[in-house]
# Entry
Amino acid sequence: MTFVFEKGPSLYKHAKNFIPGGTQLLSKRPEMFLPDLWPAYYKKAKGVEVWDLDDNHLIDMTTAGIGTCILGYADDDVNTAVKSAVDEGSMATLNCPEEVELAELLCDIHPWADMARFTRSGGEALTVAVRIARCATGRERIAFCGYHGWHDWYLATNLSDGKNLSSHLLPGLAPHGVPKGLKGTAVPFHYNDEVEVEKVFAEHGSELAAVVMEPSRYTNPKPGYLEKIRELANKYGVVMIFDEVTAAWRMNMGGLHLKYGVHPDIATFGKGTSNGFALGSIIGKRSVMDAAQNSFISSTYWTERLGFVAGIATLQKIRRENLHEYLNHIGEKARSTITEIAQSHGVPIKYLGHNPLSVLSFDVEDELKSLVSTLYTQECLFRGFLASKPFYPCLALKDEHIAKFSPVADEVFKTIGAGLKSRTIESLLKTRAADSGFKRLN
Ligand SMILES: Cc1ncc(COP(=O)(O)O)c(C=O)c1O
# Structure
């Protein structure tokens, strides 16, 4: 079968005249995958199947919508619930009761938490959490590790040193437009470095409102590491915020912090919680969450019904399907199958991270890394598969898809292996190498 990618790339080129940067989300920019060739737009998405503007029928082996569609695209159960909410009215002057039901459901899943607030995105949820922590403590400074969204409180760290965010998932984020007065309010630390975080607390502890981090992204915490941060937060009266926006529900029911047995004061959720409908959640202890009333945290569309309805239907299905066990199984199967095929062609790859939330790494010379991963994306695309380095399996990814991908991976890694051997990787690319961080595009 021949695949032609014209309409999508052409619309994206057009889009850049009207939308700065071309898209609303950095991680959906075609330049992050295959510049000038990535299909960019979809007409229809169901399960792990995607139909693009050129009517190419593709199987998605990437992140199922940047980690949102944990059950697969257009899940029947979630869609049935949402469609009925659309017919019953997605908005009214009165509130929808589902927000109370979801708040209770989240507190039931997380017995350490008493109350919940909701937003429409993960970054907003973090910003609300940080506001609540600042309100509850009367302090301003935030210690953080990892990526937590686009908002001022976070980007402010690059006012102190433009490289502060370089090792936190998205390098190259410039703080232009962030008030210089916020300089010094966000202090970064690196994951699993106990000495560094102790130093941050020793230096800033009594001024810290919150410590913000994911319990884990790609590596497990060292024994005692999260407990140490909990202890430091207690000692200095700092609100501990676990960001579960991307990790939650994949590795266990509720979030990684429940698996590791370390309870924060606030946890935030987004993405997979509502399977493709907009919802961000903030849950926390009453003693901290009550402080929300001393500030103004309020937005019209945070009351919209579809996110709540989708959230309830998604969490019910996640529980029913024992999702994390399936994702661990299918993730492991895909990863080991692909690794074996790559190795058979002399291509050194490994997957970093948890089976349900991982990233493919090519163990080649640094200057070849992005060329090789772009070639991987290109060769898979022209064989009908969306594939890139991040790999987040979903419930709709089945054995049959891995079986279909195996002969494709065999051809793709054969090409890469030969290219590596003859040092001709660059000449095999139909376009330039993909970007790995933020770049100005128009
Ligand atoms: C850990 C984490 N926190 C926050 C965010 C921001 O969420 P959103 O893109 O929904 O604003 C992300 C997004 O990738 C994330 O991975």
Observations:
- The chain has a mean pLDDT of 96.
